Amino acid sequence: MNIFQRLAIAIFKEEAKRKIFTKALSKLSPPNLYPVTDPDAVHFKHFGLIGDIIYAIPAMKALAGEKKIHLHLQINQKSLYRKSMKHANKGKILTEKSVEMLAPLLLAQPGFAACDILTDQKIDYDLDEFRKYPFDYNTNHICRWYFHMYGITADLGKPWLTVTPDTSFNNEIVIARSFRYRAPGISYDFLQAYPNITFVGLKEEYEDLKKAIPALKYKNVSNFLEFAGIIAGCKFFIGNQSFPFAVAEGLKVKRVLEVCFECPNVIPEGKDAYDFCYQPQFEKIVKQLYNH
Can you say whether the dihedral through the CA atoms of 282, 165, 65, 43 is positive or negative? Predict the structure, then answer.
């Protein structure tokens, strides 16, 4: 196949994508951009994923203004992941346990007055409505999906989470690496040369990474407020595109993101933000941060 044939195929595919997008868009009605809310509170609905909820916080703050945020989480929705992609909730996006773990972190944030399970509460903004739109959600920035939806913005270079750092982790490199969104060709073996490394996340994820880093320690947590305190207090954090990195990004700690080239929809912004998808660059970043 010559270059002209390849170019023709690429143009055809782009035109087909544009037609699909335009057709789908023509069938949609925009969300209510100006809901009538009570004087003191704005009510939001979300069904997860938990990382997406963290990335929705800047939008919630922008929409709520000075009013209190009430977040109502819809549980037991069917997972968005393929069966081959391991996930803690075993086929569900959010569970009652998810809300129990997440609520302490969100209720510790300024402006949040409620984080509970959706029952019959009134809703001003359904934060899942963006999924109706034919955008390629493997791209862009998760935070901005909500901005597109409601015509808002926020400074994503500034922290949108705040917690008390756990200073007992000041000398620890903290790592989380989910089975999803791993970059091909990336090895963590070189971290054997570094002392004081702790894993936060699922136990099976820890056991998997321990094969590469035999001295890796594991920290279990009772809720995500405790979890965030560990990340806030660590020397620096390494993670891939999963919930722990969303927390690190919201806190704006020193952080290193393993980018999945197939789904680059997490974009670190602001101070101390690094990302990589190649091995030598990964090792350089870790060396710089460790010796800083």
Answer: positive
